[in-house]
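Q: Hi! First time doing this. I have a protein sequence and I read that you can turn it into a structure. Is that right? Here it is:
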Amino acid sequence: MNFRNSGGAGSLRLGVCVLALSIATATALTGMTAPAAALSEIKREELPSPSTPPAASTDDVSPGAVPLPDPIHTSQPPSGETESPEDEQPPAQVDPDTTPDGDSTARPHVSPDAPLPEIIYDLDKLPEPVRRMHGLILEASKSGDINRLKPLVGASDSGTQLSLTEIDGDPIEFLKGLSGDTEGQEILAIMEEVLSAGFVHLDAGTPQELYVWPYFFAVPLDKLDARQRVELFKIVTAGDYEDMQQFGAYIFYRLGITPEGRWAFFVAGD
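A: Yes, that's right. Below is the predicted 3D structure, encoded as structure tokens:
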């Protein structure tokens, strides 16, 4: 047996196998490294850029979720801004012929729980301007000539109030219209009786301070005694008295004069 030749052939076959295995291994490694090389060649700008996730809309809120409230808006002006002077309301003007609650001083405002005011008959207790105006009105009433009231009534905004509502035209003609006769003498007779009764001094020391005739204006009717009811019946009838009892106050003619001597009102009604 020639071992030399046999050994040579085996070595040749072994070499061939090793060579084939080397070629196969190299081919496999080449296939594995190709994708890595391809990824490295992708340009950076071709990659998708990171983006902020979109805000969730109200349609995406699940049924069980509670939606957030809207931002709170305040009525305050922005920082650095202030309200203009035009936005500020001017203080309300006080009408001297109205009470603090807005009612006219010519309307009855008798409180049943308030202490009774002093009933005064002595005209000497009146301030001189009030006493003078009282005398002038009383003198004109007794004269029977209603036109003598014209300079006492006045015609300006501060003139005498002759009705609880606005009147148009001449105040003397308005007074004639209140009278049962055409000359206004009935209304003069009522005025004389009113001024001949006792009076009260109301709201002393306030803008509403007044001297008012007759005193029934400020005294509850159910607190009048027998003598005072006789004085009342000089001015009103028994039927008028019953009507006023149902109303709860004296609502016939009354006359007011301010401490300065201005004839403030001569009205009837509620």
